[in-house]
Amino acid sequence: MKKIIKYCLILLFVTMLFSSCTRVAKDIPDSNLKEVLRLQGESKHWKADYIIRESVDENIKYHLDLIIYPLDLSEIMYSVAYQLDSPGVSHLSGTLGSESSKNSVFVNNNDSIFSRTSSNNLPREGEDITLTIKWNDGNEEHIAFDNP
Fold it and tell me: What is the pTM of this model?
């Protein structure tokens, strides 16, 4: 009986951990803040939004939100790593799952990956902003955002 309770608690903890990493886009915190910049991009398997909003915090000028959506709804994602390169602004990166967790699904076809950081700088006009996404067994794609 103690083993069952222990197993259930571990399962509950793991579920809570991964549900905090992946959030449906409509639940983005502070989405009512003034939008300063919205960049969108797409690759063969992914779509992404890079949104910069003004902050109400006097110590932080901007919130930077990255939302990544899988496009291939039939593919099971058990490992996803992403890195946004926006020179001079901030660094957004993260990893969900691992190669050893092939029996678990970390990104469902109705979910998005959400990441947020803060910055006091905006990307310069025309500067290259690139998102690299790696998933499952060595798949990799890049999304170049059009930064006018």
Answer: 0.72
